[in-house]
């Protein structure tokens, strides 16, 4: 009798979290987006916000935007397709910090053109939670 071992099927690519860490959505950004967990650092919040843009989760974006800078309306362009996130650098923004910065490049496709959003984001704690305060676009 031949020895047949069960092969585990590779995880479907669409079950991976869009933030690029390589984990499943359920074990990565979903707890933060679902508000059952809070981001422990600025980079984790940045990744969850990128995932919220990919998934069209306005509530997460609203909840994690600092009240001093949050826009009245958060819109989505349905013709934008987010392709990937790359963290360039991160400074401060750890569990014991009050503020931090994350530089990232988000790749997207819009009107059949591939583009990049390169930003240095500033995060601060508000009521004990990390929030997005502002961002400065970086020209490539």
Summarize the structure.
Helices cover 17% and strands 34% of the residues. With 140 residues, it is of the alpha+beta class.
- From the spread of the alpha carbons, the general shape counts as globular
CATH topology: Nuclear Transport Factor 2, Chain: A
CATH class label: Alpha Beta
Number of E-state strands: 4
Oligomer class: single chain
Descriptive account of the structure:
There is one protein chain. The chain has 140 residues and is of the alpha+beta class. It has one domain: Nuclear Transport Factor 2, Chain: A (Roll), CATH 3.10.450.50. The protein has helices spanning 30-33, 42-55, 58-63; strands at 80-92, 99-110, 113-126, 129-137.
Task: Write the topology of this structure.
Blueprint: H1 30-33, H2 42-55, H3 58-63, E1 80-92, E2 99-110, E3 113-126, E4 129-137
Antiparallel strand pairs: 1-2, 2-3, 3-4
Give the tags.
140 residues, alpha+beta, Nuclear Transport Factor 2, Chain: A, 4 strands, disordered N terminus
């Amino acid at each position: 009798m031949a020895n047949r071992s069960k092969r585990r099927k590779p995880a479907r690519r669409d079950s991976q979290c869009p933030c690029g860490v390589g984990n499943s959505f359920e074990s990565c950004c979903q707890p933060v987006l679902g508000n059952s967990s809070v981001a422990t650092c600025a980079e984790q919040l940045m990744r969850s916000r990128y995932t919220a843009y990919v998934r069209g989760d306005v509530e997460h974006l609203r909840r994690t935007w600092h009240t001093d800078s949050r826009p009245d309306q958060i819109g989505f362009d349905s013709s934008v397709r987010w392709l990937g996130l790359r963290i360039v650098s991160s400074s401060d923004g750890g569990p014991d910090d009050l503020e931090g910065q994350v530089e990232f490049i988000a790749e997207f496709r819009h009107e059949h053109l591939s583009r990049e959003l390169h930003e240095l984001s500033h995060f601060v704690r508000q009521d004990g939670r990390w929030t997005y305060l502002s961002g400065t676009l970086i020209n490539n």
